[in-house]
Amino acid sequence: MSGFAETHVISARGIFLLILFGFLAYLVSPLNPMDKKERRNLLLVYPALIIIYWYLIYIRMLSLTPNVHYLLDPDSGGAWVADSLICLVFGAVFSSVIALSGGIARRCYGIMFLVTFIYLIVTLTLHRPLMMRL
Amino acid sequence: MKGESNIVGFLARLALLLAKAFIVTGFVLWYMVSTQYLGETRYVYVPFEDWGRPGIGDEYYREFTLPFIWICVFCVVFFLADGILKFRNKKYQECVSTLVFTALGILLLLVTNVQISNLLFAYIGPIVDTAMNGVMAVLSFVGLRRFKSRAFVYWTWGYSLNFVREIGVGISTQINRSPYGGFDSSEWMGYASWYRHEWQGHYLWNVMPNGFVLELYWLSYIVSGVLIAAGLFLLVRQSWSGGFRTISTCTAQLVAVGVLVMMMLTPQSLLLFGSPTFITALLVNALMLGCSLAGWWRPGHQYFKLWAWAAGLRLLLTIVMQPPRNWAWPPAQSDRVILEFMVVALLIEGFLMIVGLALALRQPKPESRAHTSDKGNMMANEVSGGASVI
User: Does the pLDDT at position B1 exceed 70?
Assistant: First the structure.
């Protein structure tokens, strides 16, 4: 018995994340009647928000029960990877949109986050917390 | 003669302020007086295991709190007289504000003199939370339609989020009911099963299997708190500007940065205070109190006064009541009393917030402008084709 079953990939949190990031994308898209400049300003915060969220919830596992907060559920290894990928891919997309528009400062800011997100995606499994044994 | 009149007016205002402070903090005072006389802890409601103890409606108990009751009655009569005077002087907004405190005084008399059933008391917290947030969300939406103000966009989202969260907590707790015992044992019989605070106390530490609900709970608390504080900030700024001014185009970005900062503070909050949202609650309520006081100071609208009382009460609760119970598991004996304070204060706070918003919505509707440079209301402008702020 391996003790590391990764059967579940789709989780409620993953679906919630897709809806949430879809809504965030809508907020900065031309479909939203907000001022264009304001949408561009809002977009700047997204990568930082996603990194902090991912770090707190997926690395520090802040949302888990405090007395087992350092261990993943045995079944949730696959879901952890899938949910992390959703966060990081959306972060990379938002960063690339920033990097492809605006002045040099915005480009540098976007590229910095883009590189960070790509690094995290490539080395994702290295960051996965320990799981409980079955 | 004029000097004497000024002194009398000043004394009357001072007495009114003291009476309001008494009504808002009355429950705490009542509890302190009762405990001082009786020399041991008493509860508003008598848990099942404590049936032998005197309840709140008992004569034995009531005689100790008689002075408190008479002061409370005097305050209610004082408020009524003041309300009638203001009504005769056609100061209708101030009249409503005074009558709110009359109602709070009557509520206080009821809470401290009528035996409340355990079940009802256990349900008051979640019911008030759900109802208050629902009503605030609806009223904010009405305000958005009426005034086309971005402040109400933030409030509609913030209170809707709170409303959905409160319902979700109830449903989630019903679904995850008691896999490790607890609620089914006689120890917990005095509580309704989805009593929110017990859910926090019990499920937060023992039951939650994957933390998903907790994550939603904390994050939605942070997002809605920042949205509501930002909405109040915008309302005050717009009131200061006399109803129209160019507002920064960064408000949405600032809200997002606020959420980011609050998220970054969650680990520190958890480590230092035992609750991930304690710092958020502290900062948001302090900001709301500051904004309400600023609005009370300059435009002087009645609804800012009511919101200032509500925010001050919530801030007081956060600072005084929350820290001692964050680290305690199993809950200390005093935890139950703290919860009672919090439930009653929640009732008062919700009442003040709702009446304040209802008063704000009674402001005259501004004339719509076909062309405007008010960038802060750009979203509302483009949706509706008009521009106005409260």
Answer: no
- Give the single-character DSSP code of A72: B
* Chain B contact present for A19, CB below 8 A: no
Q: Which chain A residues are within 8 Å of B263, Cβ to Cβ?
A: 49, 52-53, 56
For residue B196, the enclosing domain spans 118-390
* Predicted structure pTM score: 0.76
Predicted pLDDT of residue B213: 62
End position of a domain, from candidates B116, B132, B152: B116
Q: Which residues of B touch A73 (CB under 8 A)?
A: 209-210
Do B321 and B192 lie in one domain? The reply is yes
pLDDT reading at B51 higher than 60:
no
Residue with tokens 């029960």: A65
CB A77 within 8 A of CB A9: no
Residue spans of the domains in chain A: they are: 12-127
- Quote the ipTM score: 0.84
* DSSP category for residue B190: T
Same domain, B11 and B60: yes
Cα–Cα distance measured from residue B294 to residue B306, given in angstroms and rounded to the nearest whole number: 13
Residues 61-80 of A with CB under 8 A from B: 61-67, 73, 76
Residues of B with CB under 8 A from a CB of A: 204-212, 214-216, 218-219, 249-253, 256-257, 259-260, 263-264, 266-267, 270, 276, 375, 378-379, 382-383
